[in-house]
Design a protein that fits this description.
Layout: H1 2-26, H2 31-53, H3 59-62, H4 65-79, H5 81-85, H6 91-113, H7 118-139, H8 153-168, H9 173-194, H10 216-242
Keywords: Cell membrane, Membrane, Transmembrane, Transmembrane helix
Subcellular location: Cell membrane
Family: Belongs to the UPF0126 family.
């Protein structure tokens, strides 16, 4: 069980680090910028998770293998830069979806392992899955995916709920992992393919309501009344002068 989680965690680091490299290439960063984006995406969410849960030291300080995995990912990406540069724009959100699913499972699993309540475990899965990508997008001067109307954080929350539910029901560990991965990845990929999104609430200012335009009949009637009033005033003035 422990080996499964460890290898899934490393796989998530590779996928998220690769997404950071791809975004760095598209924003024309140098190799150091690629390394920074790969690192914050690969271990940023897990670092915040460990800090919130009070784990000291954080996971990559205890096991520097994570750092070497990030360095290897960036190094291989530099060697195959021309192939990465030719990847379609749809590859980044798909790679990010796989990383989101893997890290959601890892974060939820670690929180439950430390004795956290189910609600906290779901939030820790969400934090592990989205925090690194948020920092990556901010450094690249993009609106983070989690803050857009896309189904992103919702997919992570659904995966975390699936994990804690199956764990509470006593399901086999492989079924828990598979079910949580399938729900998170399925929702996210479906949102990418069919462009699913959550409703957007915006403050709308309505222009002042204008009075309805008068009809031609009303306008002519009003003109006739004005003319009659003028004739009446003129006759009254004449009567007063004759007296």
């Amino acid at each position: 069980m422990t080996e499964w989680v460890y290898w899934l965690d490393l796989a998530g680091v590779v996928v998220f680090a690769l997404s950071g490299v791809i975004l760095a290439c598209r924003t024309r960063m140098d190799p150091f910028g690629m390394l920074v984006l790969a690192a914050v995406t690969g271990i940023g969410g897990g670092t915040l998770r460990d800090l919130v849960l009070g784990v000291r030291p954080v996971f990559w300080v205890t096991d520097p293998t994570y750092l070497w995995v990030i360095l290897a990912t960036v190094g291989l990406s530099l060697v195959g830069f021309h192939y990465i540069h030719r990847l379609s724009r749809g590859f980044l959100p798909v790679a990010d979806a796989f990383g989101l699913a893997l890290f959601t499972v890892i974060g939820t699993h670690k929180a439950l392992l430390l004795g956290s309540p189910a609600e906290v475990a779901v939030l820790m899965g969400l934090l592990t899955g989205v925090a690194g990508g948020m920092v990556r997008d901010i450094l690249a001067r993009r609106i983070p995916m989690v803050l857009r109307e896309e189904v992103y954080a919702t997919a992570s929350i659904a995966g975390g709920i699936t994990y804690v539910t199956l764990d509470g029901l006593g399901a086999p560990f492989t079924a828990i992992i598979g079910g949580s991965l399938a729900v998170t990845l399925g929702l996210r990929l479906a949102a990418i393919h069919w462009k699913l999104s959550l409703p957007v609430f915006a403050w709308v200012t309505l222009p002042p309501k204008e009075p309805p335009p008068e009809s031609a009949a009303d306008a002519s009637r009003q003109s006739a009344q004005v003319a009659k009033e003028r004739v009446r005033i003129i006759r009254r003035d004449r009567d007063q002068e004759s007296r």
